[in-house]
Amino acid sequence: MIKMTMFLKRKPGLDHETFVRHHLEKHGPLFRAIPEATLHCLRYIQTHPIQLETDKVKNADYDGTAELWFDDEAGMAAVLGSEFYKTKVFPDEQTFLDHEHTLVLVGKQEEVIGHYRDAGLQGDERP
């Protein structure tokens, strides 16, 4: 399994609220409609920044993230190389994303807490 994480910037001239609404209401469902995505995309999560009431963490200057898990590199290539992605999804991205300033990271995800917590293990019981 591999994960693609994108740090998204909105297109110049587009306000943040319009970007978020489009990302959630149009782009997400459009991506979900890719036939190859039902075969190869295991999960897709969108995150949009909130106003923080702490001085411990500062949000980076991005309008959101998209996280996509694929079964493998070939599956990711099948989705992103599909006719539906090229003719429907990518053109939609160009209406609200600033591709030049969006960052993409593809890698293997390593779980640090998740399943340990689910198993009820305590700190010193963890491998």
Could you characterize the architecture of this molecule?
The two termini are 22 Å apart. The protein has helices at residues 16-32, 35-40, 73-80, 83-96, 114-118, and strands at 2-8, 41-47, 64-70, 103-107. The longest helix is centred in the first third of the chain and has 17 residues, at 16-32. The chain is flat. The relative contact order is 0.25. Helices cover 39% and strands 20% of the residues. By secondary structure, it is an alpha+beta fold. The chain contains five helices and four strands; from the N terminus they run βααββααβα. The chain has a four-stranded antiparallel beta sheet with strand order 2-3-1-4. α1 (16-32) packs antiparallel against α4.
Which structural traits does this protein have?
single chain, 127 residues
Name the shape in a single word.
flat
Number of strands: 4
Mean pLDDT: 90
**What Rg, in angstroms, do the CA atoms define?**
17 Å
Runs in which pLDDT lies below 50 for 5 or more consecutive residues are none
Topology:
Layout: E1 2-8, H1 16-32, H2 35-40, E2 41-47, E3 64-70, H3 73-80, H4 83-96, E4 103-107, H5 114-118
Antiparallel strand pairs: 1-3, 1-4, 2-3
Helix pairs in contact: 1-4
Please outline what is shown here:
With 127 residues, the protein is an alpha+beta fold. It has helices at 16-32, 35-40, 73-80, 83-96, 114-118; strands spanning 2-8, 41-47, 64-70, 103-107.
